[in-house]
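Appendix B. Raw example, untouched.
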Amino acid sequence: MLQKNIKTLFNCNLDIIINGIESNSKNVKNGNLFICRVGINSNGYDYIEDAVKNGAVAIVCSKKPKIKIPYILVDDVNENIAYIFEWFYGDINKNFKNIIGITGTSGKTSIINIINHIIENQYKSFFVGTNGISYMSKEEKDILNTTYPIEQYYKIMYDAYKQKLDTAIIELSSYGLKYNRIGNTLLDFAIVTNLSDAHLNEHKDFNDYIESKLKIIDHIKKDGYLIINYDDKYKDKFIKKFAGNILTFGSNENADISFYNINCTLNDTSFIIKYKNRKYEVKTKLIGITNIYNVCVSILVANLVGVDIEKCIKYLSNYYVKGRMENYKNTIIDFAVTPIALKENISFINEHKKGRLISVIGKIEDREINEYKKFGNISTKYSDYVIFTTDKNKTNKSLAVKYMTESLDNNNYEIILDRKEAIKKGITMLKKYDTLYIVGCEYFFRTSYDKDINPYEIIDAYK
């Protein structure tokens, strides 16, 4: 068990051994240091008594606590929190050979999976993001956030270091960047995929969203790289702010690594990439235009890390990301959280289908009303028939379904709230050459819950 004496923290005069740090009183265990962090909707000072009851032996705070317990006073707890975790868990930047961070509206999860798949053949790499932590099972770590709370993040990175992993690939949400959930982490490579007006429920407006994404630049090492989508209309906002090394990817021939001559089906994709005046043919099981961008930037970063491009291409030949435009028995299983991702993916399937497109559309319950409405309109526009359902296997009322179906121009849909029954109905509707498109099921892919809505098992049982 990791233990430290807090007399070495800010050179205080308390001679107390601690065995952990928490800012959530519910997670405090005997022997922990409790940090009175001021959050958006909570204040750590309101939970000091709970922290003490749970075993806290000392407190870091900005004002003298009312309860009698050893404490360290600092000017601003929130400003010091990263240094406190770094003191306890060690310097992340010294513990890893390469640290790669990815942000953007869409593509983040696919990219961390793709990069990790390529470089794990040469490095002891791991990823941290929406789909979990690659060296842990879903049962070990249920997933709640794309970017973890700072205390959880530092624990994960320390654990990875103790397991002698040397390359970290981190998925960075706008929210995680805004509230600095990665502390003092500095990136060797910072990737920005794209920006659109999604996830605004977490921000006061689009400008706040952009400013939050721009904070990734503050985490790039002096000799690190900013890698940005040349085709994204907001790229200049990042390029103007960063004075260091910049590389670009995209379909434009002026990008540092570009792609062209695309041949797509619902089973695989082939295209040509051009990099440093050389051309390479890529064939992969990853489908959809978005995945071409994802593959392009992943090859670029893997090559910068030290993997030969020919090897990158070889490693991707039969690779796909589970639940991300994955073709399973002629059923496309897709996460598609944002409207822009849904539109790109469903229109791609519609363009390449041979028969009808039957879509089973689910949406998580914590998004904006406008996102729900966009999902409904996009789904019915590009599908021959849509079955709207929940993201979980429940039969009560669903706000997501309500707003997805509230004001649709088309009537080519029905509602089946039980997700398992919705998928079964989609399967029974299929005729020869038809394609089934399943969207959602976030909780199945992100956590160990709701195994009864396993889309693969339902397809195996009824298709």
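End of appendix B.
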